[in-house]
Write a structure and sequence with these properties.
The complex is a heterodimer of chains A (201) and B (176). Chain A has helices at residues 5-12, 37-49, 53-79, 82-87, 97-109, 150-164; strands at residues 25-27, 30-36, 113-121, 125-133, 178-184, 193-199. By secondary structure, chain A is an alpha+beta fold. Chain B has one domain (34-175): 2-Layer Sandwich (Muramoyl-pentapeptide Carboxypeptidase, domain 2). Chain B has helices at residues 34-46, 50-71, 78-91, 115-124, 133-147; strands at 13-16, 21-24, 27-33, 95-102, 106-114, 154-160, 169-175. The model of chain B is unreliable at 1-5 (pLDDT under 50). The chains are: A alpha+beta (201), B alpha+beta (176). The interface between A and B is large, with 51 and 56 residues. Strand 2 (30-36) of chain A pairs antiparallel with strand 3 (27-33) of chain B.
């Protein structure tokens, strides 16, 4: 594989993210915050855990969709950034597959999840494993019945769209061409999280 | 990312090579974009859970400020604690704010620039109601932490909003 994952993680994790004089962090084509994982986890888990069964799927979809849109736009910002061009781009031999492998190294470096692609059928299917991720922190003991890595799932679908759904569209019209389903979760007692991305029906 | 500022608030960034997680001043943190903030906020509005979004922000920020004040005993006055809280607000990319008044029973805070409002307008344009429920939680936590009062002691309500076309946002704070 052309992408030196370890090197990408090492270099991209060192980037210091600081605000401008207005307290705004602008980078990667988006505005960014660096809030605590406890905040994001607590809202998602408190929202879904108290929801009646008939409304759960709808709320989970909205959490997944938030990450899906975020992943599409921020992902594009990442793979066109100066940092990407300096660190990852020189390693790319095969487009878009190496871009995807590199994107997951950056995904890991940013603290979203220690994750990598374990299977890729170009344009059709991708399987991602996450060996550690903050969304799993909703379980401190035992196993939750509910898969809760909405962020990893949404971003994974978005990355497939960036790779295989044509040119980037600032309006995000291609969002939804791929879907991602979480099939294993650390929060559910599995030793890793697993996510399968396929074309939407 | 040009024009970086730190002010006097400490920024101790640590990346754990083992877990691949980031910590800022000992608190596990993660980068997310304005699309994520906007869609979480929209979800809270649609689900009738804006109070929950504020409460989650309040609890998370309270942990951050309590942790910071405990680790930095030189931050020992109300004025210093307010300054650090305002700088922390900027440090994490939420924007800038000015505390006009903070008391045991009430207060007033002006948000001069706002990630949530700017992000919402960048994504969808102006809106007909306030959307900055995360900052409301931040402000409630700041009042609690500065005065050493229990969680839920204050209610911050946005009475003027950048997303509605105002130049700045105003939050009126009352004791629950």
């Amino acid at each position: 594989m052309a992408i030196d994952r370890k090197k990408v993680i090492e270099q991209m994790s060192r980037i210091e993210i600081l605000p401008d004089e207005n307290g705004i962090i602008e980078g990667y084509n988006v505005l960014v915050t660096q809030l605590s994982t406890a905040f994001w986890n607590s809202f998602a888990e408190r929202l879904t855990s108290k929801t009646e069964e008939d409304m759960l799927e709808a709320k989970e979809y909205l959490l997944y969709n938030a990450a899906h849109e975020c992943g599409y736009h921020t992902g594009y910002g990442i793979i066109t950034s100066d940092e990407w061009n300096a660190v990852v781009r020189p390693m790319i031999e095969k487009v878009p597959e190496d871009v995807l492998y590199g994107a997951y190294a950056v995904f890991t470096a940013w603290g979203w999840a220690d994750s990598e692609i374990v299977e890729l059928i170009p344009g059709e299917k991708m399987v991602v494993r996450a060996y550690d991720y903050y969304e799993a922190d909703i379980a401190k003991y035992g196993a939750s019945k509910k898969m809760s890595a909405y962020m990893i799932a949404g971003v994974s679908a978005a990355f497939m769209e960036l790779a295989y759904a044509g040119e980037y569209d600032p309006k995000g019209k291609v969002i939804g061409i791929f879907v991602c389903k979480q099939v294993k979760g650390i929060e559910c007692g599995d030793s890793y999280g697993e996510f399968i991305v396929t074309k939407a029906d | 990312m040009a024009n970086m500022i730190k002010n006097t608030v400490k920024y101790d960034h640590f990346f754990d090579e083992g877990t691949k997680r980031h910590k800022i001043n000992g608190i596990q943190s993660v980068l997310h974009c304005h699309h994520y903030t906007s869609l979480y906020t929209q979800l809270a509005i649609d689900a009738g859970e804006t109070g929950l979004l504020t409460e989650c922000a309040r609890d998370a920020v309270r942990d951050i400020l309590d942790n910071y004040f405990a680790a930095n005993p030189e931050v020992d006055s109300i004025q210093k604690k307010i300054e650090i809280a305002c700088q922390y607000y900027a440090l994490v990319g939420l924007g800038t704010m000015k505390v006009h008044f903070l008391g045991d029973y009430s207060g007033s805070v002006e948000v001069l620039s706002s990630h949530t409002d700017d992000g919402w307008m960048k994504k969808w344009g102006q809106y007909d109601r306030p959307v900055n429920y995360i900052s409301a939680g931040f402000i409630e936590a700041m009042f609690e932490a500065v005065l050493g009062l229990p969680a839920g002691a204050f209610l911050a309500k946005e009475t003027q909003s950048i997303v509605m076309g105002a130049k700045t946002s105003l939050f009126n704070v009352t004791r629950r």
